[in-house]
Amino acid sequence: MNSDGGVTGRPIGAATGERQGSSGAVLETRGLARSFTQGSETIHVLRGVDLSIAPGEIVALLGPSGSGKSTMLQAIGLLEGGFEGSIRIAGEEAARLDAAGRTAVRRDQLGFVYQFHHLLADFNAIENVILPQLVHGAERPAAEARATRLLSVLGLGHRLTHRPSQLSGGEQQRVAVARALANRPALILADEPTGNLDEHTADVVLAEFLRLVREEGSAALIATHNERLAKRMDRVVRLHEGQLQ
């Protein structure tokens, strides 16, 4: 356990984008770049980002608001086009896939947690975690059992039938975490997952998030501007002027 209370079961690497070679990496980007044109000006948000994440490793992507963290996660999550460079997810070159291929990678390999929960308002907590599994091809009984286990581990065993509007902010984020892990993704991408919570609730939710991710064996890339929270993860990389430090 580190000084901030985070459990670090794997060695903490240096604060650079590289930790290990490409062999076995769950995520590997090479030369990842993104620019935008505003009038006559070209704005370079990402400038050739190289990053490797090992299976089961939890990495904090640290940087102030506007530094390009969300843009980087959108690229890795195959949510937006216009990027240059290589993105390999679980050994597969994903950057060049067509729309159907990108959808398959997102469905089979990735889980997402955002600052706002984005739960389906008309469905209760357990249904929000069951539905992604059904889309993935799971049978209803198995999906319900897994949803119940994930939510119970997160302390929501007594809130399974409550809709998002009946849950607190921290509870909503716990459901979002369970949903992200429902299909056993190789990699979780989280964009300021506790940024909408008060400090105490953020601490509790992050601790539960990290514990469950480690228990499930997924890797994670978690964007945050909070140095204190970043220290609870296995490794910190900093995005500065479009490059990792």
From TrEMBL:
Outline the segment boundaries, as ranges, of region: Disordered: 1-24
Highest taxon above the source species: Bacteria
User: Which Pfam families does this entry report, sorted A to Z?
Assistant: ABC_tran (PF00005)
Q: Which Gene3D superfamilies match?
A: P-loop containing nucleotide triphosphate hydrolases
Q: Which residues form the ABC transporter domain?
A: 27-245
Q: Which UniProt keywords apply?
A: ATP-binding, Cell inner membrane, Cell membrane, Lipoprotein, Membrane, Nucleotide-binding, Transport
Annotated InterPro entries: AAA+_ATPase, ABC_transporter-like_ATP-bd, ABC_transporter-like_CS, ABC_transpr_LolD-like, MacB-like_ATP-bd, P-loop_NTPase
Note the SUPFAM superfamilies from the entry. P-loop containing nucleoside triphosphate hydrolases (SSF52540)
Q: Which GO terms describe its biological process?
A: lipoprotein localization to outer membrane; protein localization to outer membrane
Looking at the keywords, is Nucleotide-binding present?
yes
Gene Ontology terms: cellular component = membrane protein complex; plasma membrane
Gene Ontology molecular function: ATP binding; ATP hydrolysis activity; transmembrane transporter activity
Indicate yes or no for the key word Ligase.
Answer: no
| Entry's family note | Belongs to the ABC transporter superfamily. Macrolide exporter (TC 3.A.1.122) family.
Q: What is this protein called?
A: Lipoprotein-releasing system ATP-binding protein
Query: Can you name the source organism?
Result: Sphingomonas palmae
